[in-house]
Amino acid sequence: MYQVTHRTEYRYPSTVSSSFGEVVILPRNRPGQLCLRSRLDIEPQPTDLRPRVDYFGNRATYFAVLAPHTRLAITATSVLRVTGPPVADPAGTPDWVAARGLIGSATGVGPDADPDGLEARQFVLGSPLVSLSERLAEYARPSFTAGTPVLEAAIGLSSRIFRDFTYLPGVTEVTSTIDEVMTQRAGVCQDFAHLAIGCLRSLGLAARYVSGYLETQPPPGQPRLEGADASHAWFSVYVPGLPGGGAWVDVDPTNDQLVDDRYITTAWGRDYTDVPPVKGVIFTRGDRQELRVSVDVLRIPEEQD
C-alpha cells in the first residue's frame, strides 16, 4: 500500500484578488490499483469546490478562491492499494499490422462489437502536443518489422528511446513539441512519453498519455528525503485481439520497463494538455509567481478490510 502526498504552492509578489482553477491530482481506480481514500486541501479556503469526472474518467476538482491572497497552497493526500496491472506476454500479442487492422475495424454494435476497441480509436489521432508525421513513423519502423507482435514492438521502441535520448531536465518545457525533442535528443519523462505516443500513432496504433507517480528509493545508506519524489509520466499502448478482449499496457520509456506495482496512476488522456496537475487563471496586477512542488510516495503497512 502507498500514501501519496502531492503539494503545490504558489506565492505571488502582488495580491491576487481571485483564483479559479482545476486540479487533477487524485489517483483513479484501475485494474491493479484501488484508491481507498483521498483528501484535497486548498488554502485559502475555496468559496466553491466541485469534484467531477472528466471525459477520460479522471478525477478532477474545480475550485474558486475569491478572497484576496498572496499564497495558494494545494495538497492532495491519498491512500492506495497497488498490486500492479495485469501482465501480458509480449510475444503472445497479435502482430502489429493485424492489431492496427483490428483497431481500425472496431465497432460498438453488432455480433462482433468491440466497444473497447472503438473507444481506443480516438487515441490513434493527433492531439495538441502529439502531431503525427512520417519522421516519427520512420523512427519507429526498426521496432515494427513484419510479423512482430505489437506489444513486443512497443517495448522495443521504448527501449530505443531510452538508449537514444538523454534524460536532461531544463532543456524542454511543458509545451515543447516532439520535433524539438527529436532534434535535441534530450528531455524528461513527459517528452519521452509524447515521443513514443507520436511514433505509435504515426503507425496507426492507439496510445495514450499516463500521469502518476513512481516509488523511488534513496541511494544505499542514505535516508529517504521528504518531498524528494516527483510526478512521472509514461505511455499506454492498446493491444487488441487478446483473450477476453483488448487491453491497455503501460510502458515507461524513461526507465526502460513495463509499469509494475511501484507505479501509481493519477490520470490519462491524449497528451499532457488533457491532464496537467493544476491549471487555471488568477486576477492580479502582478506578472510573476513562485511555484514550489513536492511529492512524497510512501509505502505503508497493509490495512485490514
Keywords summarizing the entry:
305 residues; alpha+beta; Immunoglobulin-like; C8orf32 fold; 2 domains; 7-stranded antiparallel beta sheet; 5-stranded antiparallel beta sheet; 6 helices
Query: What pattern of helices and strands is seen along the backbone?
Result: EEEEEHHHHEHEHEEEEEEE
CATH architecture descriptor text of the largest domain: Roll
The radius of gyration computed from the alpha-carbon positions, rounded to a whole number of angstroms, is 20 Å
Shape: globular
Residue share in helix: 10-25%
Strand content: 35-45%
Determine the N-to-C terminus distance: 13 Å
Number of helices: 6
Instruction: Outline the low-pLDDT stretches.
Output: none
Main sheet makeup: 7 strands, antiparallel
CATH class of the largest domain equals: Alpha Beta
Quote the CATH topology of the largest domain: C8orf32 fold
Helix/strand/pairing category: alpha+beta
Give an overview in words.
There is one protein chain. The chain has about 300 residues and is an alpha+beta fold. The chain folds into two domains: about 1-85 and about 275-300, Sandwich (Immunoglobulin-like), CATH 2.60.40.2250; about 90-275, C8orf32 fold. The protein contains six helices and 14 strands. The strands form three sheets. Strands 1, 2, 3, 4, 5, 13 and 14 form a seven-stranded antiparallel beta sheet that branches. A five-stranded antiparallel beta sheet has the order 11-10-9-8-12. The protein has a two-stranded parallel sheet with strand order 6-7. A hairpin with a 5-residue loop joins strand 3 (about 50-55) and strand 4. The protein is globular and about 60 Å long. The two termini are about 15 Å apart. The model has no long low-confidence stretch (mean pLDDT about 90).
